[in-house]
Amino acid sequence: MKDDDAPLSLSVPEPKCRPGDTPDFSDFVIPKAGEARRPEIDEDPEEMRDMAFSIVRVLSKEGEALGPWAEELPSDLLLDGLRHMMTMRALDERMMTAQRQGKTSFYLRCLGEEAVACAFQTTLDNGDMNFPTYRQSGLLIASGYPIRTMINQIYSNCGDPLKGRQLPVLYADKAHGFFSVSGNLGTQLIQAVGWGMASAIAGDRKIAVGWIGDGSTSESDFHAAMVFASTYSAPVVLNIVNNQWAISTFQGMARGKAVTFAERGHGFGIPALRVDGNDYLAVRAVAKWAVARARSGIGPTLIEHVTYRAGAHSSSDDPSAYRSRRERAAWPLGDPIDRLKRHLVRIGAWTDERHSQAEAEIDAMVREEQAASEALGTLVSGGHPSGRDMFQDVYAEMPPHLRRQRREAGY
Amino acid sequence: MKDDDAPLSLSVPEPKCRPGDTPDFSDFVIPKAGEARRPEIDEDPEEMRDMAFSIVRVLSKEGEALGPWAEELPSDLLLDGLRHMMTMRALDERMMTAQRQGKTSFYLRCLGEEAVACAFQTTLDNGDMNFPTYRQSGLLIASGYPIRTMINQIYSNCGDPLKGRQLPVLYADKAHGFFSVSGNLGTQLIQAVGWGMASAIAGDRKIAVGWIGDGSTSESDFHAAMVFASTYSAPVVLNIVNNQWAISTFQGMARGKAVTFAERGHGFGIPALRVDGNDYLAVRAVAKWAVARARSGIGPTLIEHVTYRAGAHSSSDDPSAYRSRRERAAWPLGDPIDRLKRHLVRIGAWTDERHSQAEAEIDAMVREEQAASEALGTLVSGGHPSGRDMFQDVYAEMPPHLRRQRREAGY
Amino acid sequence: MSQMTMIEAIRNAHDLAMERDDRVVVFGEDVGYFGGVFRCTSGLQEKFGKHRCFDTPINESGIVGAAIGMAVYGLRPVAEIQFADYVYPAYDQIVSEAARIRHRSAGEFTCPLVIRMPTGGGIFGGQTHSQSPEALFTHVCGLKVVVPSNPQDAKGLLAGAIEDPDPVIFLEPKRLYNGPFDGHPERPSPPWRDHPLGEVEDEYYALPLGRASIRRDGADLTVLAYGTMVHVAMAAAEDSGLSAEVIDLRTLLPLDEEAVEKSVKKTGRCVIVHEATRTSGFGAELSAVVQELCFYSLEAPIVRVTGWDTPYPHAQEWSYFPGPARVVRAMRQVMED
Amino acid sequence: MSQMTMIEAIRNAHDLAMERDDRVVVFGEDVGYFGGVFRCTSGLQEKFGKHRCFDTPINESGIVGAAIGMAVYGLRPVAEIQFADYVYPAYDQIVSEAARIRHRSAGEFTCPLVIRMPTGGGIFGGQTHSQSPEALFTHVCGLKVVVPSNPQDAKGLLAGAIEDPDPVIFLEPKRLYNGPFDGHPERPSPPWRDHPLGEVEDEYYALPLGRASIRRDGADLTVLAYGTMVHVAMAAAEDSGLSAEVIDLRTLLPLDEEAVEKSVKKTGRCVIVHEATRTSGFGAELSAVVQELCFYSLEAPIVRVTGWDTPYPHAQEWSYFPGPARVVRAMRQVMED
Ligand SMILES: Cc1ncc(C[n+]2csc(CCOP(=O)(O)OP(=O)(O)O)c2C)c(N)n1
Ligand SMILES: Cc1ncc(C[n+]2csc(CCOP(=O)(O)OP(=O)(O)O)c2C)c(N)n1
Ligand SMILES: [Mg+2]
Ligand SMILES: [Mg+2]
Questions:
Q1: Do B219 and C59 touch (CB under 8 A)?
Q2: pTM, entire model
Q3: Inter-chain CB proximity A164 and D320 less than 8 Å
Q4: CB-closest option in A13, A45, A231 to B13
Q5: Which residue of B has its CA nearest to C123?
Q6: What's the Cα-to-Cα distance from A320 to each of A106, A247, A252, A312, rounded to whole Å?
Q7: Do D92 and B184 make contact, defined as CB atoms within 8 angstroms?
Q8: How many CA atoms lie within 13 A of D155 on its CB side?
Q9: D274 is catalytic
Q10: Cβ count within 10 A of residue A121
């Protein structure tokens, strides 16, 4: 502490590990699996403050499911979850390659974060609505959205339901409860709150689920979402996916002097939990808990999913310029697929052989879908949504000036 | 708690007291004067959470100064404070009358909140900068800004330093550390943080002080201010003036399910205190504490001043349409002038006679200044800034198109 | 038929729309219990309940963002921004979201909502209670922009806006709330009571968006105006003694180009009037469109009469306001040239 | 003299400005350690320290709001918005604050700051990495709006913007960062290396704001353009075989009306080209100004070649982009009429 007369100086937070440094997560406190308590869903938020500083974890290193958050789950349900995550990863890998091959302009993976979206989706009902970011494609996979349609969108080919208008992975599908992903960060959270308010106004039972990245919690609209959710106790679950990075910016820049992102909930009387985002069982259990709170009208919940962006931000990014190549390996919470697999093997529902077999099957399936999609076309070849489509859907009904422009454009 | 299958419904917060209802502040927990503890300025914010739920109060009903926040202060300093508040109130009353007489378009008082700005200003150094709202005119009074100049601004006459451009009370004066008041709510808080960051970047020792109302804390930019203040631990004090109302909207609409506004600081690791805003000594002590934190580079502080908007929102507002006429009398924290006066009388530094005498003197002084200002003109009579002035200061140098427009306008 | 002020007409439109369609919800700062600082929503909470009409926290971005979520859900939100000068915090939600959702999702999601806000000066409100930001919305494809100039239109256009399947920015000239102000501050302000357009049908009716209306037939020149400036233009037409055709655009986006083209081709001369600052104001688009559609009929340069490129001042309000005298001067100018 | 890309020229302008004036501070999302997603600030943090060049939280309103506070304090902040498409959350701070502070405080406080942002399409960025929002700023009095079209200008204009005592919106056409793209995507993109305007003085120099530059002399018609469209217009002029005068406006606000008037009065014909959507785009203001200043010299209607009034599409990017073919068509049209 400096005295009053010394000059001030600007404090600019920096990550502990940049290229060349040795990764060091020693100050990252990780409770043991099974350690975190499980409050009642109607417990007073003030009584639950501790949950924002702990981490709900179910799967141990050895693959046991431990503690009050461990549910009795039929193993085929867990096998579905494993398959969802493996499919997500296989699709990401194929599409990343396709992008490098020039078949599309851009791609963005959720490598290492598959458990968050895949597990959460299984706790929702038909008609509930997600307001996702570009990194929650797992919600679609887990809700059975056709892989081929996803690839069509990524290729902007004539099978693309979004008619080639949107950047790859900015999907939209009402039936699957997946709201149109915006390229503008942070706008979707207050929209989720509004959607939930509408459900309450209509006397409906549907709930909304908002998603946002660690970096994007800095956006001012995050505040709008928290204020409205708190004031109207909207039936929503607000998820912060803390994957440690926002392009080249470490999570500390957005977190500031707070200890966790979950803490943000405390200023609003919104209960907040942290969960091990690489632990499929933990995410599922916490999601179920929060969804029940929303659906039974108790109010909103803020969840911080602690995970790690194992890959580049996107196909346009090279993380080796700003973080250590060895950081991924040093990440203490492991890989979500390995961890669920180990659990399934341990409970005798799965084997290494069947896993490699499943990998091969899924890879083959994705390649098939890709081939079928490429038969329709890619961004650079084959059938395309025409320029004519570009003039549709600006309005429900095309006004005269747009019709004139369409003629001028020759369509 | 309703079960999963019951329909949802929207919860819309309402104040306990609307016109016709009996005011009821029974659930407003008020600690005794002297009860709140006084943390070290470098105490860990997490250790200070309790301060956001308590209220720092120094002056007892009987006018004693009690507890760890009571400072040894020369009585003439307190008499200055009393005079500042009395001057503020006298000016407000005269100007409100002048507005009703049609001498200006609009006026806005800080009736009942005089202690907040008047006390805070006395803890600042020359060169520090306030980023106020329209309800902190007391900062100018306490810094010795000429009353006549204030009236000139209110009248938009030819003595108005703002050349008739601004609505009454949206003052601006650099030398008195009073940044130009914006008509747009909430924008000034992040500007205060940026100003403080600049002081730190420049290795200066000046600090910034931000001000915002309870209702305006809902604005998204409040978040920007908190995030930047936390991340760069900027040398700023952020003040929330909770006067219970935002025009017709009670403070619960902005607060939501949080218990206090001070709590907002917790999500950012920013220490937060609540202070009795009608207690001159308490405000001064808490301000001093927070200013020391900022100036010594420890970081930002969030202060909730608990007070009551005793008058209408502005000359355009009639509160009897939305709150009980009896609410003001029922307000438990009393009147800031009465309370400081009682203290001064108690310590033998003041008497009722001298008080009424002072009232008369101040009233006479304000009337004199008003007369002098009216000699220059009011909004509807006498000397005015010309239309020509309107074209100045849009840019440092007037570009050709504005010069042409000025000619077109005939100036 | 009843005599209504513009405030009463707007309140009535809300009321009837909420009666016939329970998807319609109304909210904003001070709009619930109090009924809005201009009283446009008073009585609605009492009649329809707190879940249909309610106060919001002071967060314009939140108001619009929540409205978008509600519209996506299937409601028909009508959000009030207390003054147009305060819409900017919501600009991202309007431009990047409301205006884009139908297109970017190829119609999978839609965003039918109305954002109402009082605009314009003439009430000594200074620079933050007087702005006319219409051009900041007409540049945004996906939005519709409506500006009524009288109670009859205000009721029908608001109903039309609420029925519209796309986001509508509904700008209410606050100087017209209580009477057809013609830009002569020195004269007593007439009430709507004495104005034919203050006569409003009691039943629900919706006017189609995108249609201008000719307020005054004329042969010498065309005056394009909207909102308060319609009445200023009418006064100027009288004062000038010229045969001026005054067109009230009513909807700026999409623009009724047919009506504009027809009139200017007939008169060959055009004056454009708006209260907003000149550079890149909506008058620029009107001027561009007129010369694109009517170049060979134009006998004189199109003249824009607008607010100056300065903030709206407090004391100098009437030096800023584009009143009848300035419009008359412009009319004479296009006649001389 | 060195060969520089536009990125290098912009970086160099930052570097020299920071060297000569320690009030200059640079910040934004990913601009510090990483040097910006387009590398325009790389090396600055290392050279000048974290207090002169630093990363910010992802909050555009916060970035601009903090910059305003710094400018009011007396620094010369240069803030980067990662893409112009993301400036809207900062719109209130820009329009209601930065642009107003000098005027509303009668010069007591001032706000000298620069807000840089990449604009325009042609990189398959879809609707949120391709926008050109210049007209949303040219309508705001108190702002200056600059759009460089080459490394030489980019360096000098950025220095000029940093020296300017008022807030400047500095729009960088990202399609020009690495070469003078002329709107022919099918041809290999030329590098700046081979372009005369890629030759940049090594010393610090500041170009005055508000001055256009004639890129090509011509007698038949005038083409008004800025940013990427300058190169498209040049290519179109070649392709058309017409004697087209191509004017690079460089600063949109304040506009160099003299240069525009002189040229159009000479040629009598005018084509306006921009990438932004048409309705209420800056082309509208240009069209209005041209007909106000040059009405009696105009021999044909002014034609606007612009982006369509739709969001910027992904797959149909080249159907949207106003390329040379469309500009040539417009040039022929104004010649025929
Ligand atoms: C309003 C806005 N500002 C900036 C950007 C540019 N941008 C795209 S992704 C990104 C980082 C987001 O990080 P985070 O929120 O942590 O999500 P993650 O990518 O890690 O999943 C940024 C700055 C944007 N898309 N929108
Ligand atoms: C951005 C913006 N939105 C709305 C308004 C209109 N308005 C002016 S004062 C006010 C209430 C503010 O209440 P609060 O913040 O509690 O301050 P107080 O008036 O009580 O001091 C409102 C809604 C505004 N000026 N700016
Ligand atoms: Mg992240
Ligand atoms: Mg208040």
A1: yes
A2: 0.98
A3: no
A4: A231
A5: B105
A6: 19, 11, 19, 9
A7: yes
A8: 25
A9: no
A10: 27
- Most A CBs within 10 A among C45, C72, C101, C141, hence the mutation to make, goes to C72
Which residues in chain D are contacts of B190 at CB distance < 8 A? 61-62, 65-66, 69, 93
The pLDDT score that the predictor gives to residue A383 is 84
Q: Which of C37, C57, C88 sits opposite B253 (nearest CB)?
A: C57
Full strand arrangement of the beta sheet holding B236-242: B129-131, B208-213, B236-242, B301-306, B272-276
- Helical (H) or strand (E) element with A84: helix A75-100
| Gap from CA of A186 to ligand 1 centroid (Å) | 9
Cis status, amide bond into C254, omega within 30 of 0: yes
- Residues A229 and A237: their CA atoms lie apart, in Å, by 9
Nearest Cα of chain D lies from the Cα of A301 at a distance, in angstroms, of 23
Q: Counting atoms of ligand 2 from 1, which one is nearest the CA of B251?
A: 16
Answer whether B221's CB lies under 8 Å from A220's CB: yes
Residue B252 to residues B15, B244, C32: CA-CA distances in angstroms? 7, 8, 14
> Tens-of-pLDDT digits for all 411 residues of chain B?
455 679 999 999 999 999 999 999 999 999 999 999 999 999 999 999 999 999 999 999 999 999 999 999 999 999 999 999 999 999 999 999 999 999 999 999 999 999 999 999 999 999 999 999 999 999 999 999 999 999 999 999 999 999 999 999 999 999 999 999 999 999 999 999 999 999 999 999 999 999 999 999 999 999 999 999 999 999 999 999 999 999 999 999 999 999 999 999 999 999 999 999 999 999 999 999 999 999 999 999 999 999 999 999 999 999 999 999 999 999 999 999 999 999 999 999 999 999 999 999 999 999 999 999 999 999 999 988 999 999 999 999 999 999 999 999 999
- Selecting among C14, C129, C231, C274, the annotated active-site residue is C129
What's chain A's average pLDDT?
Answer: 97
Would you give per-residue pLDDT tens digits along chain C (337 residues)? Answer: 999 999 999 999 999 999 999 999 999 999 999 999 999 999 999 999 999 999 999 999 999 999 999 999 999 999 999 999 999 999 999 999 999 999 999 999 999 999 999 999 999 999 999 999 999 999 999 999 999 999 999 999 999 999 999 999 999 999 999 999 999 999 998 999 999 999 999 999 999 999 999 999 999 999 999 999 999 999 999 999 999 999 999 999 999 999 999 999 999 999 999 999 999 999 999 999 999 999 999 999 999 999 999 999 999 999 999 999 999 999 999 999 7
Closest CA to A290 of A53, A56, A34: A56
| Shortest CA gap C313–chain D (Å) | 9
Distance CA(B134)–CA(D280), nearest Å, equals: 35
Q: Which one of A227, A259, A274 would you mutate to disrupt binding with B, by most B Cβ within 10 Å of its Cβ?
A: A227
User: How close C154 gets to chain D, by Cα (Å)?
Assistant: 24
Of B10, B106, B389, the CB nearest to C51: B10
Q: Which residues line ligand 1 (CB under 6 A)?
A: A 135, 183-185, 213-216, 243, 245-247, 309, 313; D 29, 58, 60, 82, 86, 89
Tokens representing D318 are: 């080249």
Q: And the tokens for D105?
A: 């405080």
Query: Six-digit token pair at C26?
Result: 């109304």
Radius of gyration of chain A (CA): 22
Q: Is D80 on the interface with A (CB under 8 A)?
A: no
Q: Quote the ipTM score.
A: 0.98
Q: What 8-state DSSP symbol labels residue B411?
A: -
Q: How far apart are the first and last CA of chain A?
A: 69
Bond into D254 cis (ω within 30): yes
Q: Distance, CA A256 to ligand 3 centroid (Å)? A: 14
Q: Is C56 on the interface with B (CB under 8 A)?
A: yes
Give the separation between CA C194 and CA B236, rounded to whole angstroms.
Answer: 57
